[in-house]
């Protein structure tokens, strides 16, 4: 099954799915400030 | 990232950290985290911000597995936007993947579609080596079909986006979209262009490109990076070594001009590859015009005069 998705959304989906799959995956984002 | 980011709520502060804008510290901490067995993803707004952490990116993360004799691994993803072409000026509009694709131990992924954006990211996270994952800002809002659930795109496997028989176009990121549009236009002229997206520059799927050149006999490389620091230059060298006998015309590179990307949007457009430049390059390649020529800046202005505002051109001529 495939669904329509935006490029940016597809990246975020992969990150979330991989973080749900593997508890060793961690995320460092940059602050806006 | 802000305190209101939903990822914080989903995974908690132990797995999601808001780092200060200090790339040296952020990437350095991530390399250390990876050495302990975790799989950090570092998100940077712009790929150029990695330049302040080049020791960590080029000389630490990719070397440690080799230098420890395989005792440690650095499963790290450096995610960053690149190639912004909307008047963001010389420090935010660059393509610096050439610097990274030549570093042993470092992998480089450049998705050009939503499906590849998902699949390459999942593969990058599962890789036990450092991966620079560069997403193109001009593609952020593009939509396309994306497989639901687990979707992995293997590294080092190029995607033939469009089959053709007269010329091979190799492009990455945003340039894939422009090359496909150029191929449509060429088809109306009776020229059949094959469009290949390598998807990863390290590893690079040279075999698929050479197979295509064997079929078409002509190669046009489309790259948003400046000519002499482009992936195109590397691919041209690989084809010269591994597929020279198949070429019926010189390889042509359609690249950014060798200049800092200007803040002025008309001048920015003047510098960057576009559909018209790609079409003209293919026509010239097919007509034999390219033979024996150095196909660089002497070519690009000639085709650009027609497509950019007159004041931009006068500005250049008077400078």
Molecular shape of chain B: globular
Sketch the topology of chain A as an H/E string, one letter per element: EHE
The average pLDDT value of chain A, as a whole number, equals 93
Largest sheet of chain A: none
Structure description:
- Chain A is α+β, with helices and mostly antiparallel strands.
- Chain A contains 1 helix and 2 strands, in the order βαβ.
- Chain A has one helix at 7-21, and strands at residues 2-6, 25-30.
- The model of chain A has no long low-confidence stretch (mean pLDDT 93).
- Chain B is of the alpha/beta class.
- Chain B has 13 helices and 12 strands.
- In chain B, strand 8, helix 7 (174-188) and strand 9 (193-197) form a beta-alpha-beta unit.
- In chain B, helix 2 (23-35) packs parallel to helix 3, helix 7 (174-188) packs across helix 11 (275-287) and helix 8 crosses helix 9.
- The longest helix of chain B has 15 residues, at 174-188.
- Chain B is globular.
- The model of chain B is unreliable at 291-319 (pLDDT under 50).
- Classes of the chains: A alpha+beta (33), B alpha/beta (319).
- The A-B interface holds A 1-11, 13-19, 22-32 and B 1-2, 5, 7, 10-11, 14-21, 26, 29-30, 33, 37-45, 79, 111, 113-115, 117-119, 121-122, 125-126, 135, 139-151.
- Strand 2 (25-30) of chain A pairs parallel with strand 2 of chain B, so a sheet runs across the interface.
Fold topology:
The complex is a heterodimer of chains A (33) and B (319).
Chain A: E1 2-6, H1 7-21, E2 25-30
Chain B: H1 6-11, E1 16-19, H2 23-35, E2 39-46, H3 54-60, H4 64-67, E3 77-82, H5 97-101, E4 107-109, H6 114-126, E5 131-136, E6 143-147, E7 159-162, E8 167-171, H7 174-188, E9 193-197, E10 200-202, H8 206-216, E11 219-226, H9 231-242, E12 252-256, H10 265-271, H11 275-287, H12 300-304, H13 310-318
Parallel strand pairs in B: 2-3, 3-5, 4-5, 8-9, 8-11, 11-12
Antiparallel strand pairs in B: 4-10, 7-9
Helix pairs in contact in B: 2-3, 7-11, 8-9
């Amino acid at each position: 099954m495939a669904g329509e998705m935006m490029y940016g959304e597809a990246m975020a989906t992969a990150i979330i799915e991989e973080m749900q799959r593997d508890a060793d995956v961690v995320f460092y984002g940059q602050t806006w400030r | 990232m802000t305190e209101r980011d939903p990822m914080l709520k989903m995974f908690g502060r132990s797995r999601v950290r808001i780092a200060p804008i200090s790339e040296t510290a952020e990437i350095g901490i991530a390399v250390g985290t990876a050495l302990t067995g975790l799989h950090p993803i570092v998100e940077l707004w712009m790929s150029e911000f990695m330049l302040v952490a080049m020791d960590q990116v080029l000389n630490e993360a990719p070397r440690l597995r080799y230098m420890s004799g395989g005792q440690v691994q650095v499963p790290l993803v450096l995610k960053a936007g690149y190639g912004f072409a909307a008047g963001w000026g010389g420090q935010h509009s660059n393509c610096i993947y050439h610097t990274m694709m030549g570093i042993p131990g470092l992998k480089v992924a450049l998705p050009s579609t939503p499906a590849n954006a998902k699949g390459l990211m999942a593969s990058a996270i599962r890789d036990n080596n450092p991966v620079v994952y560069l997403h193109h800002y001009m593609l952020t809002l593009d939509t396309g079909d994306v497989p639901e659930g687990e979707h992995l795109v293997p590294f080092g496997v190029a995607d033939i986006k469009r089959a053709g028989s007269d010329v091979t176009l190799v492009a990455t990121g945003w340039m894939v979209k422009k090359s496909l549009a150029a191929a449509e236009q060429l088809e109306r002229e009776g020229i059949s262009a094959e469009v290949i997206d390598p998807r990863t520059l390290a590893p690079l799927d040279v075999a698929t490109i050479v197979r295509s050149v064997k079929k078409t006999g002509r190669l046009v490389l489309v790259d948003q990076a400046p000519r002499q620091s482009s992936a195109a230059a590397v691919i041209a060298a690989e084809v010269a070594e591994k597929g020279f006998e198949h070429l019926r015309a010189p390889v042509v590179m359609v690249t950014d001009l060798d200049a800092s990307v200007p803040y002025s949007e008309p001048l920015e457009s003047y510098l960057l590859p576009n559909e018209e430049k790609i079409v003209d390059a293919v026509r010239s390649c097919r007509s034999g015009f390219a033979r024996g020529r150095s196909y660089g800046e002497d070519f690009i202005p000639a085709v650009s005069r027609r497509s950019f505002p007159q004041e931009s051109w006068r500005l250049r001529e008077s400078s």
